[in-house]
Specification:
Blueprint (H helix, E strand, L loop, with lengths): L2 H34 L11 H12 L2 H34 L1 H14 L8 H8 L3 H25 L3 H9 L4 H39 L4 H10 L3 H29 L4 H8 L1
Length: 268
């Protein structure tokens, strides 16, 4: 790559970040101006300055950080269970053609069921405790991981598979040296998708069921008429979602640095 090309490659990420920040700044200005100009009522959409002030007030309280911790705890536990189960079940089903054929219709039946439809079941089993949130988070995130793992296992090169068999690799060795390197990029894609879905379901469960966390605090703020606080807490959930997505992408680039898709992304 020439010096000019390297310079362009270095500028592009900075340019994208600058465009993103300018778009965010424009949104903040718009939210500040709309209620002050009387276009929308400040009771339904407070100005940005009031939302940020409410956010600062909330961040100074211990209850806010407890709620953040509750949400992140439910998210992390649910995601970990979903990833472990999704990878194990996906490899097992994908590696055994008979199991794949037998379970195909079951997977296609259960996967489209919205997790929020399980809220009555979650309340019946666990009430408004952490378990109800975990049930919804695990169910929603599990399918994201499972489907991607199945795609990854199906993408294994049959020539490589037959070569491993001809060299009398054990089943464990074939999984480690043939199946896993092919499926790993799909696994990371599933984990990245599942991480976002898990956060959405965690907050949704807290909103609807009243389980401890940011969702429950948002519901209390809405019912008590603390609208700036409600918007401030919504902003916090958005910031957490952005941070989770950035962390997942960074981990994907780090652990898949050897893969051609990541090398191509870095080169671009």
């Amino acid at each position: 790559m020439t010096a000019a090309g390297a310079g362009v490659a270095r500028v592009r990420p900075a340019g994208r970040a600058l465009l993103g920040l300018s778009g965010l700044a424009g949104l903040l200005v718009l939210v500040e101006l709309l209620p002050r100009a009387g276009i929308v009522s400040d009771r339904s959409l407070p100005p940005t300055s009031r939302i940020l002030a409410a956010l600062a007030d909330e961040a100074a309280t211990a209850a806010f950080w407890v709620a953040v911790g509750d949400t992140l705890t439910a998210w992390a536990i649910g995601l970990a269970v979903a990833v472990a189960a999704g990878v194990a079940v996906g490899v097992l089903i994908g590696a055994v053609p008979v199991l794949r054929a037998v379970t195909a219709s079951t997977v296609e039946f259960l996967r489209p069921i919205p997790s929020v439809a399980l809220i009555p079941l979650a309340v019946l089993l666990y009430g408004s405790d952490l378990g109800s949130t975990l049930l919804l988070v695990v169910y929603a995130a599990f399918w994201q991981v499972l489907v991607q793992v199945l795609y990854g296992v199906a993408d294994v090169d049959p020539v490589a598979e037959e070569t491993a068999r001809s060299f009398r690799f054990t089943a464990a060795a074939r999984i480690r040296y043939v199946l896993w390197p092919t499926a790993l990029p799909y696994v990371f894609t599933g984990v990245r998708l599942a991480a976002s879905v898990a956060l959405v379901l965690a907050v949704t469960a807290e909103l609807v069921i009243g389980a401890p966390g940011l969702g429950a605090v948002i519901a209390v703020a809405q019912t008590s008429g603390a609208i700036p606080t409600m918007y401030a807490l919504i902003v916090v959930t958005g910031l957490i979602g952005v941070a989770i997505n950035l962390a997942a992408r960074r981990a994907e680039r780090h652990f898949l640095a050897w893969h051609q898709s990541v090398r191509g992304e870095v080169a671009a």
